[in-house]
Amino acid sequence: MTLTIIVGLVVLAAAVLVAAVVVLRRRRSRVPGDGDGATAVGEAVDRVVGRLADRAAAGAAGGPAPSLRDRLSKARAALTGPLTALERTSVSQEAWTEVTEALIRADVGLATSSEIVEAARARADSARGDPTAAKAALQTELRERLGGFDRSLARRSDGESPSVWLFVGVNGTGKTTTIGKLAKREADAGSGVVLAAGDTFRAAAADQLAMWAERSSVHIVRGSAGADPASVVYDAVESAAARGADLVMADTAGRFHTEHNLMAELQKVRRVADKGSGVVTETLLVLDATTGQNGLAQARQFTGAVDVTGVVLTKLDGSAKGGIVVAVQAELGVPVKLVGVGEGIADLVPFDTSEFVEALFA
Fold first, then answer.
1. Overall average pLDDT of the 229-252 stretch
2. Residue 261 in contact with residue 237, Cβ under 8 Å?
3. Contact between 162 and 237 (Cβ < 8 Å)
4. Which of 6, 39, 161, 326 would suit a FRET pair with 308, their CA atoms being 20 to 30 Å apart?
5. pLDDT digits over 276-285, tens only?
6. CA-CA distances (angstroms) from residue 241 to 162, 244, 262, 269, 351?
7. What is d(CA 27, CA 199) in angstroms, rounded to the nearest whole number?
């Protein structure tokens, strides 16, 4: 039996169990007095589904992993035509215009796209008509613009613990899932991790984070519904200090980014997280790559409010707007540190400039 068939059967089993959860929860709502039993069964099935998903991901990891080139097929396809024109013997003004338009469509931004193309054109002109020089010049320009950033996830420099990583972003960007995947990675690497369920306004967010905590065998601190998010994060930091844990990963609320109250709340969380035994070393903004320039607007708001130190781009594999990587760094000076290129736990990966550029142009 091939690996593909085995993984397929595991996924099918998971789907059947998910259907069972739905049926049980519907019955719970119809049968008075039977809620506790249905809830217990539902939670047990949720745990089984999570473990099956982990096993499926582990099984898939045994085979050849898709390359970043394969993951970025949509973004690359948007550039294919214009880049082909650049490889002709004689590169015309029209070809450079097509490249500029392609970069704009990829959400690099008008001003940044124009600057990149002008600089690449100057490089290519100095190569005296080499038909491959134009494409190579564009690659070099992108690498240089994306370079020069520290993309590591910072820890405390004083050797003490815990370090605190705050995660911010609007709802729906994959923030809680990102925390869960990263917690799993850090725990597997030997770090002591505590999760803080700071999004106290959405019970689903805390429940989801609790499932990730169970999968990763890490501790979670959560408050009651509507509790002060800052107090939950503070408690998580103190709990981590008492346990000797290295790292606190704190979820935060994600109502729409233009709401003043949300930004004030995040600022308070940031201040309080620094007051106790921990030090905030990262404030990571989670953006959905498929939103393009809307994501950039979110980045501006959050960066102004809470001193964002890095960006996590989710769903990059499903987007033709991969240029948002360039736009974020060019316009905000904030590095993209992690990218999501799939649904599996191992599909949250450190951003690598050379690999990214090669995947777009390969």
1. 96
2. no
3. yes
4. 161
5. 899 999 999 9
6. 6, 5, 28, 18, 30
7. 29
